[in-house]
Amino acid sequence: MEEIRYFKICLEDVVEKLREYFASREDVLIAILFGSALRRNIVRDIDIAVYLARKSLNKILRMGWELEEILKTPVDIVPLEQLPPKLKLKILLRGKPIIIRSPSTYTEILKTSIGELEDLKTIYSHSDLKKL
């Protein structure tokens, strides 16, 4: 069994390195730091949500590897648009924005997330699930 490793980080250093990294990546419209790195200085990984101008799994994987080299800490990069509405909304409202090249895209994703969450609440309130 593989043991769980923890890494000591400094939030200010992580944010600075992430901003430097994403500054030259024009296809990354939005990058937001979220998760335990915002609350602790000892973490298992660093979580980043991104929104790309052109969707590419290879690009996301490559960014993850490059950032792991830079930060010397495991990195999880997730496509913002593929997250569940509640998590997406939490990231948008409570995460640490690294880069927002398109405020209109950010606002549109935020509005869509709120709408999706409201739709889920409506579906739940009209279903038999609430009886469980």
In short:
It comes from Staphylothermus hellenicus (strain DSM 12710 / JCM 10830 / BK20S6-10-b1 / P8). By secondary structure, the protein is an alpha+beta fold.
Protein described:
This protein is of the alpha+beta class. It has one domain: Beta Polymerase, domain 2 (2-Layer Sandwich). The protein contains four helices and six strands, in the order E-H-E-E-E-H-E-H-E-H. The chain has helices spanning 11-23, 57-71, 85-94, 103-125, and strands at residues 7-8, 28-34, 42-43, 46-52, 75-79, 96-100. The strands form two sheets. It has a four-stranded mixed sheet with strand order 5-4-2-6, sandwiched between helices. Strand 4 (46-52), helix 2 and strand 5 (75-79) form a beta-alpha-beta unit. The longest helix is centred in the last third of the chain and has 23 residues, at 103-125. The protein is globular, with a radius of gyration of 17 Å. The model has no long low-confidence stretch (mean pLDDT 92).
Number of separate structural domains: 1
CATH homology superfamily: Beta Polymerase, domain 2
Topology as a string of helices (H) and strands (E)? EHEEEHEHEH
Strand order of the largest sheet: 5-4-2-6
> What's the Cα radius of gyration?
17 Å
Shape: globular
- The number of E-state strands comes to 6
CATH topology: Beta Polymerase, domain 2
Counted by DSSP, the helix tally is 4
First CA to last CA: what distance? 37 Å
CATH architectural arrangement: 2-Layer Sandwich
Biggest sheet character: 4 strands, mixed
Question: Residue-averaged pLDDT, rounded?
Answer: 92
Give the C-level CATH assignment. Alpha Beta
